[in-house]
Amino acid sequence: MSAERELRQLQKAKLKAQQRPLPAPQVAAICNQLGEILASLGRYEEALCEHLEELRLLQEAGDGIGCAVAHRKIGERMAEMGRYQTALEHQRRHLELAQSLDDAAEQQRAWATIGRTHLMAAENLSGTEAQKELREAEKAFGSSWSVIETCLEGHHPIAELSSMRSRLYLNLGLLYDSLSDPHRTQRYLQLSIRLAQQAGLWEDLYRAHYNMGHVHYRAANHGQALRCWDKAKECVKNLGDKGGDMESDCLYSAAQVHLTLGDYRAARRSLRAAYRVGSSDPKQRRLLRCSLRYANEMVRLLAALEAAGGGQDGGQDGGHDGGHDGGDGSHDGRDGGHDGGHVGGDGGHDGRDGGHVGVDGSHDGRDGGHDGGHIGGHDGGHNGGHDGGHDGGHVGGDGSHVGDHDEGHDGGHDGGHDGSHVGGDGSHDGGHVGGDGGHVGGHDGGHVGDPALLMSLYEQLGDLCAKHGDYARALRYYQQQLRNAEVLSLPGRDMAAIHVSLGATCCDLRRYACAVRHFRSALELQQEEPKEAAQTLLFLAQSLLDAGDPMEAMSMFNSAAQWAETAAQPHIKVGIWGCGGYGGNGVLWG
């Protein structure tokens, strides 16, 4: 039964229960179920209202342990809305009631929930504040474990004890991941997996594999991440109807790996499959549509680029963007998966919350010794079978086309492999990617096409990658745009705009020396454009400040203010104030 349908049935049941009326505990039980379903749909405010009504009814009925559980539920909803301190107040009330009633099982759950809330709060903080929350989480998890060992062992069903321990191991693994302790992270996640396997706890096993996958993903171990999600998907098969969201999220996570590696066809297959499975979470559905549009547009532009005779990945920049970066020592990240952060606009959390994830059935290599070959195969070839006929048409009515033909057939049947072997070149767990085609060396891998068309395509590719956070790949496309612009001998104003895009992208990658060079190049071309020059000077000043050269930065702030006055652009002067170009007394430094 779908969550929406179950929600409607429970709302009708609640209405009937209030009209009869039924005893308060029975109505409270319906409120509890409604709160859980509404929360699963992302409707946290409505869910909170149901749990508050549940608490009121149970207080009227004098049900102490019921009130304790209601406080826990209220705390969970508060935490999901980011209201952590209020959440902790309710969760501590849950603990107090459980202690007063001498209910050890609820005490264990209370401590575990408190630890989880501290862990969630830490993810939204930094520095000493985050460390403080993490240490509080560690203490709470320790107390939860102590209750199991001293009060529940030998007095509680073994299956429930196994589930409690498995979840605690998982939480400890996530805690030590946040504390940047990879050894203990791996240890506790493996313990969670082993215990859940032994006890046949499929949902707990799923969560452990899922989170292990994200740990590997954040460490850029892409092949291992996909293997973990493949195992998580196997667990979903044993969960029946409630596995739908898990499978969808699983396919989405696998797609993020493919997007990170630049294998847009494999990403698109995973995203289409995820969209067909569906998700009950409106936010997740929006993320799916966003990523699907991104993957589809990248496939289209890369196909156009290949047809125009351009290099598919923009060509490498020689490692240093045409020269040394003044000692900043950063790499562009050859696979686009390091310096650009998470790709595909997922905009949210990457899976620490133990949410539902699976995998797209992609095969990670059969040789047992490596993570496979290249990802994807060749864009213009046959990647094995048909993806349900064609890859074109509309997907689930998302309002946008998700592609016509894939210049060949685009991957196996929907339950099969993604055709995506993750690279095992011995240097990365993903290495170079063969999915977005072409040679990524200094030449464009084919005949030289129309420079104007190539320049436009590289610009669109760069803008699209930058929009979705893949700054390393965006930088390479902008560099190719610049090379083609130089072939065309474009006017200075147009060349300057490209240099500004390159500078901004270098800033996103924290390659400030590189950014300074591009902004200076833009300024040389903007001498007759005071408005543009003032804005570029502002960018340059901020880059110098970030690069650790405050004196030169102040000089550029002053110059920006002067150009802003010449151009009659007072808003630029306001921007300078915001960047720190003015002293506290309102006087320009320098």
> Structural class of the helices, strands and pairings?
mainly alpha
Helical content stands at 55-70%
Please state the average pLDDT score: 79
Strand percentage, roughly?
Answer: under 5%
Question: Which of globular, elongated, flat, extended, rod-shaped describes the shape?
Answer: elongated
Number of strands: 0
Instruction: Report the radius of gyration as a whole number of Å.
Output: 28 Å
- Cα distance, first to last residue? 69 Å
Number of DSSP helical runs: 21
Largest β-sheet summary: none
**SSE run:** HHHHHHHHHHHHHHHHHHHHH
Give the low-confidence spans. 315-447, 580-590
Protein traits:
single chain, mainly alpha, 21 helices, 0% strand, disordered C terminus
Description:
With 590 residues, this protein is an all-alpha fold. 63% of the residues lie in helices and 0% in strands. It is elongated, with a radius of gyration of 28 Å. The chain starts with a helix and ends in an 11-residue tail after the last helix.
Give a brief outline of the structure.
This protein has 590 residues and is mainly alpha-helical.
Layout of secondary structure:
Layout: H1 3-19, H2 24-40, H3 44-61, H4 64-80, H5 84-100, H6 104-123, H7 127-152, H8 158-178, H9 182-199, H10 202-218, H11 222-236, H12 244-261, H13 264-277, H14 282-308, H15 451-467, H16 471-488, H17 492-508, H18 512-524, H19 530-546, H20 550-566, H21 570-579
Helix pairs in contact: 1-2, 2-3, 3-4, 4-5, 4-6, 5-6, 6-7, 6-8, 7-8, 8-9, 8-10, 9-10, 10-11, 11-12, 12-13, 12-14, 13-14, 14-15, 15-16, 16-17, 17-18, 18-19, 19-20, 19-21, 20-21
